[in-house]
Specification:
Elements (H helix, E strand, L loop, with lengths): L28 H8 L4 H7 L4 H7 L7 E3 L13 E3 L1 H20 L6 E5 L9 H11 L7 E5 L5 E3 L1 H4 L5 H25 L5 E5 L4 H7 L7 E5 L9 H9 L6 E4 L12 E4 L5 E3 L8 E5 L5 E3 L11 H8 L5 H8 L5 E2 L2 E2 L10 H10 L12
Parallel strand pairs: 1-3, 2-5, 3-4, 4-6, 6-7, 7-8, 8-10, 9-11, 10-12, 12-13
Antiparallel strand pairs: 13-14
Helix pairs in contact: 5-7, 7-8
InterPro entries: F-box-like_dom_sf (IPR036047), F-box_dom (IPR001810), FBXO4 (IPR039588), LRR_dom_sf (IPR032675)
Protein name: F-box domain-containing protein
Pfam family, one: F-box-like
Length: 372
């Protein structure tokens, strides 16, 4: 039996070698980099395995703009400060160091840095790791910083079993954390002067306030709790907001200690448009000078304190009504606690506004049950 002959294919319909080339490779380099920039870090590494040209493309520093240590590496968990076995912690720690080396070897040009490390941890020295990263990547254009320097995402089980719970050691640890944070903040002021969005835990000490005031490009700022027993001096808050000329959004997590109960604060900023103090406890404003403010969020937190009536009245009588403070100091205010204000709210209050003030105002006219 004669072998079967292959059918003849017209010359015009034959495939050329160029037809096998994926159209992606025909795009300009900048376009290809832009497409790959939408991929996650794991997907980018997978693309590097496709071929040599893609591998070279993925190594471009333009694709590595985010340093995100909050992903926990191989641990995709929804908890913070999770205790794990020593073996799992060492695996995660190895991932952190490999990830840092990866960013440095790619000559990353960072726009975003997210991290959660206990900077007071002397054994692992996370502060040194972050400084090493900043020294070896391009971070001049860093614009977003999300840093929790009070605890590490994963901790070995024996860390707390063998640790002392004495107040002296706790205070020493807090001081180590503050010192390392201030050193890192000083480093950031020199290496990353263009940060415009920042979320950090803050200790409100004078050196920290002075360092934070150097970020003149800040537009969005969120300051979270550092230590619940540490209060914030009214003059310190005023100094910080006055020193940031481009600040547009401010979120404050402040817990006023019991010894400072009755203290009121003033706030002044010519640029602030959004202010959120709803996460704070006991934060009362006596004066606001915010000509650009358009939205305010405030919440009266029930403290569960038992005081006699005379003491409660004496404390609350020191504070003006929030309605009066807003009417005098926020000429452009439009939204209060996610509710749009009526056109004539400055002339007189109305039902919905009174309900909002009952939830937000600490004065004696709006329900004093928060002190019970």
């Amino acid at each position: 039996m004669s072998p079967r002959k292959r059918p003849l294919v017209p010359v015009g319909s034959r495939r050329k070698a160029s037809d096998d080339v994926f159209p992606f490779d025909l795009l300009p380099v900048e376009c290809r980099l832009h497409v790959l920039s939408f991929l996650g870090e794991v997907d980018k590494c997978s693309c590097a395995l496709v071929c040599l040209s893609w591998s070279r493309l993925v190594r471009s520093w333009k694709l590595w703009r985010v340093a995100d240590y909050s992903r926990r590496g191989v641990f995709h968990l929804g908890q913070e400060g999770l205790l794990v076995s020593n073996r799992e912690f060492e695996r995660w720690k190895a991932w952190v160091h490999h990830y840092t080396h990866h960013l440095i070897s790619r000559r990353a040009s960072l726009l975003t840095l997210k991290a959660s490390f206990d900077l007071g941890d002397r054994s692992n020295d996370w502060a040194r790791l972050l400084r090493h990263l900043l020294d070896n990547v391009h971070c001049r254009d860093l614009s977003q910083l999300d840093l929790n320097w009070t605890f590490t995402l994963l901790e070995p089980l024996d860390l707390r079993v063998h640790s002392s719970s004495s107040s002296h050691q706790d205070s020493s640890t807090k001081m180590d954390q503050v010192t390392s944070f201030q050193d890192l903040l000083s480093k950031l002021t020199q290496s990353c002067p263009r940060i415009s969005k920042m979320r950090v835990h803050f200790d409100w000490s004078d050196p920290s306030v002075a360092l934070l005031s150097r970020f003149q490009q800040l537009r969005v700022l969120e300051l979270k709790y550092f230590w619940v027993f540490k209060g914030v001096a009214p003059a310190t808050l005023q100094t910080l907001t006055s020193a940031l000329p481009n600040l547009r959004s401010l979120t404050l997590h402040i817990l006023v200690p019991l010894r400072n109960l009755g203290t009121s604060y003033s706030l002044e900023s010519s640029s602030l448009e959004f202010l959120d103090v709803s996460p704070s406890r006991g934060l009362v404003f006596s004066r606001l000078r915010l000509p650009a403010l358009r939205e305010l969020r405030a919440k009266k937190i029930v403290r569960g304190i038992t005081l006699d009536r005379r003491t409660r009245l004496r404390i609350q009588s020191r504070w003006p009504c929030l309605y009066q403070v807003l009417r005098d100091g926020t000429p452009r205010l439009q939204v209060l606690n996610n509710e749009r204000l009526g056109a004539g709210w400055r002339d007189q209050t109305y039902g919905d506004l009174d309900s909002i003030l009952d939830q937000a105002c600490y004065c004696i006219q709006h329900l004093d049950s928060w002190l019970w």
